[in-house]
Amino acid sequence: MKVIAAAKELNYVPNLLGKQLKSGQTNMLGFFTNSVSGPYFYTLIESIARTADSLGYGLNVFVTKRHDTIQNYLFGNVVDGVIVFESRITENDAKMIEHHRIPAVFLDRPKTGDKISSITFNSYKEAFDATAYLISLGRRKIVYLAGYPDNFDSNERQRGYEDALQKYGIPVNRSLILPGLFEEPTSYSEMRRFINLHPEDVVDGILAGNDISAIGAMRALKENGINVPQDVSVIGFDDVEIARYFQPSLTTTRNPIGRQGVITVKQLVSMIAEDAKGQMVVLDGQMIVRDSTAIKQ
Amino acid sequence: MKVIAAAKELNYVPNLLGKQLKSGQTNMLGFFTNSVSGPYFYTLIESIARTADSLGYGLNVFVTKRHDTIQNYLFGNVVDGVIVFESRITENDAKMIEHHRIPAVFLDRPKTGDKISSITFNSYKEAFDATAYLISLGRRKIVYLAGYPDNFDSNERQRGYEDALQKYGIPVNRSLILPGLFEEPTSYSEMRRFINLHPEDVVDGILAGNDISAIGAMRALKENGINVPQDVSVIGFDDVEIARYFQPSLTTTRNPIGRQGVITVKQLVSMIAEDAKGQMVVLDGQMIVRDSTAIKQ
DNA sequence: CCGTTGAATGCAACCGGTTACTTAATAGAA
DNA sequence: TTCTATTAAGTAACCGGTTGCATTCAACGG
Questions:
Q1: Which bases of strand D sit closer than 7 A to a protein CB?
Q2: CA–CA separation, B40 and B255 (whole Å)
Q3: If A205 and its partner were Cys, which of A142, A239, B78, B175 is the partner (CB 3.0–4.6 Å)?
Q4: What gap in Å lies between CA A37 and CA A39, rounded to an integer?
Q5: Is residue A296 assigned to a domain?
Q6: Are residues A34 and A143 in the same domain?
Q7: Looking at residues A6-16, what average pLDDT do you find?
Q8: pLDDT: is B263 or A85 the higher one?
Q9: DSSP code of residue A186
């Protein structure tokens, strides 16, 4: 009683390590990722960090590529649960996660185990719908500007794009799939190269892997006097801030990133604290029609 | 010997907490911040996380606003050193940081103690130079689109703006300082309001608190048929990705954010591991002239 | 005045490592 | 063979909390 008062007087702060060691829990979540760059990540991390904080958890961000370090952090009892995105976590690690029964949420692949959840976006359906929308505007020759080769979302989007074409009886043309790599300059130069190859017979629609590559493609179009949206209609993904303010403003699909973060943390915490089972959640995006798409004259 | 081999066989991972408790160091750095949103933060965090990783440190990101939580993490021996930006760290905390002698780096204010470093940008000088550049282009009536009211950089930039005006004999006009709040919509509406108030006599230069507010201002100008850069020349800050690709591409000042992160971590680690003293580092930015500025006809 | 009760305090063990020290085992030299 | 030098293995204490249990103390009713 007196001791506590005295401690407060001297503004004593307890050593958390002793507490964590004894109790066997750290009240920390680990976020394992390759990179934190780009609008997607900061929205996600912001959401994860705030939700974790509101539930009494702190956040550890691990950007390491060194595999031993990953293992030390994963299984060194330094976090109570882990969130995994685009990280250097191998199949073997995933098995160990399952074996150690450390609660985990995957954001870039389907769940694999009992104590594992996955919270992903419905990239396939979004791309399918966006492509169908372009077709409904009278577009028939549609480019897909792909992202990183092994990226889950990029591949899902391509699958949706191809399936939509087929559904409406348009044959898939591999030469219309360009490697934009999610980057402005690459998308710009790929598009410029394409235009130069087919000066007479350009496309009438572009489905870009993300907004920034859509902007790159539009730059190439503008340079060649091709009009957006009349000649070519363009759709991006992500709804980054600039999509709204760019001219022409960009039709795109917005994913509920903030909600992904909130659900991720809530699901993870309920696996930790209430021993809940893992769940697989697929979140639907929302297409936002702006000025970069219009019906073909 | 055999034991170690057997341990490896069973892919045993040591409990880091015991190690940390005994050794008195955690090899973790703490990053205390209000928010992680925006291009500045992800560039900074990416740089900090990678540099920390390369030096054998992990990164803890604390976005909490609860003050007891901040104290627990700050002084609970859960990190070996702290990085502070725009956080809810009070003056009292800063004193405690100094008293506990926990190494710290401030990114949003000058250093105050012996074991404390500060790594900041030279926002004053950058704004001074940018304003002087506008004046050298023949601009005399220059708006400053301010950021958040209490933001260190925004205020420093305003100081540089005012001093540059005075140096060249242009009186500072308070009505030319608009609250853009670092946001596109706010900057747009403030600029539109301003144009409507002075339909005959618009400005001929804009120094925006950041790029995104510059883009907002340019939207208002364009809507009113005012030409950039001929009628009004516009300069932003930060050189976000879109500044290069916007039309007209934006003249802006790029801060070495990545370098700030690297220096921050190196300085922090040398205070931790080599008992180095705190330093005060001011980094210079670089103005990048693009198409949003031109000499006045 | 004594016995019971409740609160407050003191004490020891434990969490899982590290470290220093002791003891055992092996190898090499006389 | 025997003694010493070197290495390996075993032991106990410690880091700073938490937890359970034993002890002390004060308060109160009988």
A1: 8-10, 14-19
A2: 9
A3: A142
A4: 7
A5: no
A6: no
A7: 74
A8: B263
A9: H
Q: How far apart are CA B106 and CA B87, in angstroms?
A: 10
> Rounded to an integer, what distance in angstroms lies between the CA atom of residue A141 and that of residue B16?
57
A245 and chain B in contact, CB less than 8 A? yes
The predicted-structure confidence for A79-90, as pLDDT tens digits, reads as follows 999 999 977 788
**What's this model's pTM, rounded to 2 decimal places?**
0.90
State the average pLDDT over residues B149-175.
Answer: 95
Instruction: Say if residue B113 is in the same domain as residue B185.
Output: no
> Could you give the CA distance from residue B210 to residue B230 in angstroms, rounded to a whole number?
21
pLDDT at A12: 84
Buried b (16+ CB within 10 A) or exposed e, A250-289: bbbbbbbbeebbbbbbbbbbbbbbeebebeebeeebebbe
| Residues of B with Cβ-Cβ distance to A14 under 8 angstroms | 72, 76
Residue B289 lies in a domain: no
CB spacing of A72 vs B41 below 8 angstroms: no
B247-262 pLDDT, tens digit each: 899 999 999 999 999 9
Assign residue A212 the CATH number of its domain: 3.40.50.2300
- The closest alpha carbon to B67, from B84, B90, B85, belongs to B90
**Alpha-carbon span A12 to A18, nearest angstrom:** 15
In a domain, B297, yes or no: no
Q: How far is CA B141 from the centre of its chain?
A: 27
pLDDT band at residue A7 under the 50/70/90 scheme: low
Which domain range does residue B153 map to?
A: 123-255
